[in-house]
TrEMBL record:
Protein's UniProt keywords contain Coiled coil: yes
All residue ranges annotated as the DNA mismatch repair proteins mutS family domain in the record: 314-330
Organism of this sequence: Zea mays
Lineage: Eukaryota, Viridiplantae, Streptophyta, Embryophyta, Tracheophyta
Coiled coil: 165-219, 427-454
Residue ranges, compositional bias (Basic and acidic residues): 518-528
Keywords: ATP-binding, Coiled coil, DNA-binding, Nucleotide-binding
Molecular-function annotations in GO: ATP binding; ATP hydrolysis activity; ATP-dependent DNA damage sensor activity; endonuclease activity; mismatched DNA binding
InterPro entries, per database record: DNA_mismatch_repair_MutS_C (IPR000432), MSSS (IPR046893), MutS (IPR045076), MutS2 (IPR005747), P-loop_NTPase (IPR027417)
Protein name (record): DNA mismatch repair protein MutS type 2
Keyword Signal recorded: no
Domain of life: Eukaryota
GO biological process, one term: mismatch repair
Length: 611
């Protein structure tokens, strides 16, 4: 095909080789179709598909080869299928186990990726019992020392909604990827010198992308703190719209379900969650035209089903209790529903509402400590919710204050306040003071925690410094001991060398004195070969007799251990300690000295003959 293209005229140079239905052909324009001799496969306004005559047998052969390959593959697959059929049960079991392992690995990866916390799970209505694994052993128990001293039914500090956190991290990852791509494109254009004008636009876009990354990293999702006391059964959360009430409910529900399927909780440790037997939720608008359900009736139908199914080990989440109808009737109905759930309807019920009457359940004689209030914090200066939960404080109405700040005519605002009444204003003022005190308490608590962390850090630094000093002192002591030991070894070596030199010099001096004495004797004999009398000989014999020993006439006699020998070089006697016949050496002891000498350098002495 390439050869045909090369041999074509210049006018047919726009043609190209392509594949149609597995056959090689040439795509050419309508005007150039006459340049190629072959079969016309198709024709359109864009051009013609021509299969050259010379390529027909080659295409046929290629198609036959493909058919043979397909048949061979089919035969192989058929044989493999027959083999798999023999072990189908084992393969299915292996597949199921692989799926289980994949689920476990997916849970672990998710928990690690979002820095989750292992929850302390316990069975509702059973004290000090942790949930056990399938093998019968405890999954994991968090030490009671890790939890605050107060008994908690649900404890989740700094809890995140998983979808909000996931979306935020994905946005950051996407923004950073855009920054990296733009940076690489600018670098490429600078290397090849392309489109300087467009480079300026890319640089401007890059600055915007970096600004978005920094903004995303700054605007982190706001975590919520859930600290529900052990005696609390119903939690009523109030607050403005878009303040985070519904997200808080969903966070608790998702955390409970995540813990049950083996996922870590996206919260700070420690985390304590009951093992709910079921999680029931009425969240959102359940109106339906097909079922003739309004918002109110849809909520009631859902809540009725939840009340019938929930038990004393269930979690119930109710969003906007009593909404969708007359406020007075809705508030009365909401109070009755929550009291019903508090009696025996669930282990824990979380409800959000705008009805102020539901806040009073905590202070009724019925509730005892079963009810607890919380509200979503609202920043009135900036007219924005902070998405933080204030515990123990019922939410107050902010509608009139917000309308005043938004610039509504003052006479309308004042009229609204008169219609609301002084009692409501006093209650709101009281709640405002409670919120202020709560915020001050939280601020002081944070400062105390910060100071505690600093003191712990200083304590750790002091311990490290003390350990460093002890280690340094020990190292110095060991170093000095090592130096002293080295000097002692050197001193002993010097003393040994000096002593050896002293011994050698003493021996050399003795030998020299002996040689001088022999030379003097020889010179005397030369002068007087015959003694004038035998007195000198008698004196010598007397000296030998006084020693009680006579020289060994046999100079080749080998001494034995313990023998007394005479060492001419020392001009003294010594005792044989050891004999090494292989080296013709003998070790003798003369006083405090031990010497190694040749056998020829000692003479065996004869002891006196005992009478």
């Amino acid at each position: 095909m390439d050869k045909l293209m090369r041999n074509a005229d210049d006018e047919a140079s726009l043609s190209e080789v392509c594949i149609v239905n597995g056959r090689c052909c040439i795509r050419t324009t309508m005007d150039n179709s006459s340049f190629f001799d072959g079969l016309l496969l198709s024709r359109s306004d864009a051009g013609s598909m021509i299969e050259p005559i010379v390529a027909v047998p080659l295409n046929d052969e290629l198609q036959e080869s493909r058919a043979l390959v397909a048949k061979a593959e089919l035969d192989v697959l058929s044989k493999l299928t027959d083999k798999i059929r023999l072990d189908l049960d084992s393969i299915q079991n292996l597949l199921q186990e692989t799926i289980k392992l994949d689920k476990i690995a997916a849970r672990a990866k998710y928990s690690i990726a979002y820095d989750g916390t292992f929850p302390d799970l316990y069975l509702p209505n059973f004290e000090n019992e942790t949930v056990t694994s399938a093998t019968g052993g405890s999954i994991k128990q968090i030490s009671s020392a890790q939890l605050p001293k107060k008994a908690w039914k649900l404890y989740m500090p700094n809890a995140y909604h998983p979808l909000l956190l996931q979306r935020h991290q994905e946005n950051i990852h996407r923004a950073k990827r855009d920054v990296a791509s733009a940076t690489a494109e600018i670098r490429r254009r600078r290397i090849y010198g392309q489109d300087i004008a467009e480079e300026d636009q890319l640089a401007s876009d890059l600055d915007s992308m970096k600004l978005r990354v920094s903004q995303l990293e700054k605007d982190q999702p706001v975590p919520v703190d859930f600290m529900i006391a052990e005696e609390t059964t119903v939690l009523v959360i109030t607050g403005p719209n878009t303040g985070g009430k519904t997200i808080s409910l969903k966070t608790v529900g998702l955390a409970s379900l995540m813990a049950k399927i083996g996922l870590y909780i996206l919260a700070s440790e420690p985390v304590k969650i009951p093992w709910f037997n079921a999680v029931y939720a009425d969240i959102g608008d359940e109106q339906s035209l097909t079922q003739s359900l309004s918002t109110f009736s849809g909520h009631l139908k859902q809540i009725g089903a939840i009340r019938a199914e929930s038990t004393s080990e269930s979690l119930v989440l109710l969003d906007e209790v009593g909404a969708g109808t007359n406020p007075l009737e809705g508030a009365a109905l909401g109070m009755s529903l929550l009291e019903s759930f508090a009696e025996a309807g669930s282990f824990l019920t979380l409800a959000t509402t705008h009805h102020g009457e539901l806040k009073t359940l905590k202070y009724s004689t019925f509730s005892n400590n079963s009810f607890e209030n919380a509200c979503m914090e609202f920043d009135e200066e900036n007219l924005k919710p902070t998405f933080k939960i204030l515990w123990g404080i019922p939410g107050r109405s902010n509608a009139i204050n917000i309308t005043e700040r938004l610039g509504l005519p003052l006479d309308i605002v004042e009229s609204s306040r008169r219609l609301l009444g002084t009692a409501g204003a006093e209650i709101n003022a009281l709640i405002m003071d409670m919120e202020r005190l709560k915020q001050e308490y939280q601020q002081h608590l944070q400062e105390a925690q910060y100071l505690l962390m600093q003191s712990k850090e200083l304590h750790n630094n002091l311990e490290l410094a003390q350990k460093s000093i002890v280690d340094h002192t020990s190292a110095q002591r060991k170093r000095k001991a090592r130096v002293i030991s080295e000097y002692a070894v050197m001193a002993r070596s010097i003393i040994r060398k000096k002593f050896q030199q002293f011994q050698e010099s003493a021996i050399a001096e003795r030998v020299k004195e002996e040689e001088n004495a022999v030379n003097d004797a020889k010179s005397d004999r030369v002068k007087d070969p015959m003694p004038a009398n035998t007195s000198a000989i008698g004196n010598i014999q007397n000296i030998d007799t006084s020693l009680g020993m006579t020289a060994n006439d046999d100079e080749d006699e080998v001494p034995e251990v313990g023998d007394s020998v005479y060492v001419p070089k020392l001009k003294n006697e010594a005792t044989v300690v050891k004999i090494d016949s292989s080296k013709n050496e003998v070790q003798v002891q003369a006083g405090m000295m031990k010497l190694k000498l040749k056998l020829k350098d000692v003479k065996v002495q004869k002891r006196k003959v005992s009478r």
